[in-house]
Amino acid sequence: MQVTVNDECTACGICEDICPEVFEVEDDKAKVKLDPVPEEFHDACREAAEDCPSEAIEITE
Ligand code: SF4
């Protein structure tokens, strides 16, 4: 799984709350720390993508 955050991100921090192992909010945008994302975090990444208010998290499986 590869996860990216597009420019719609508002740095709200929800994804980092859900999965801090993968997401980290920097100045004005969330960063993905693991590429590829290990299997153990896949469900959390899907949850973060669903909960992101800006629909900024893109997942490629
Ligand atoms: S939940 Fe979405 S908008 Fe909020 S920091 Fe993460 S990617 Fe950005």
| CATH topology label | Alpha-Beta Plaits
How many helices does DSSP assign?
2
Shape: globular
Count up the domains: 1
| CATH class division | Alpha Beta
Instruction: Name the average pLDDT.
Output: 98
Unreliable stretches: none
- Strands of the widest sheet, in order across it, are 1-4
Helical residue percent band: 10-25%
- Reported CATH architecture: 2-Layer Sandwich
Bound ligands, named by name, code or SMILES = iron/sulfur cluster
- How much of the sequence is in beta strands? 15-25%
What summary fits the major beta sheet?
2 strands, antiparallel
Structural class: alpha+beta
Task: Tell me the series of helices and strands, N- to C-terminal.
Answer: EHEEHE
Distance from N terminus to C terminus (CA atoms, Å) equals 4 Å
Radius of gyration: 10 Å
Architecture overview:
The protein has a single domain, classed as Alpha-Beta Plaits (2-Layer Sandwich), CATH 3.30.70. It is α+β, with helices and mostly antiparallel strands. Strand 2 and strand 3 form a beta hairpin. Strands 1-4 form a two-stranded antiparallel ribbon. Strands 2-3 form a two-stranded antiparallel sheet. It has helices at 14-18, 42-51; strands spanning 2-5, 23-25, 30-32, 57-60. 25% of the residues lie in helices and 23% in strands. The mean pLDDT is 98. The site of iron/sulfur cluster has 16 residues, from helix 1 and strand 2. Iron/sulfur cluster binds next to helix 1 and strand 2.
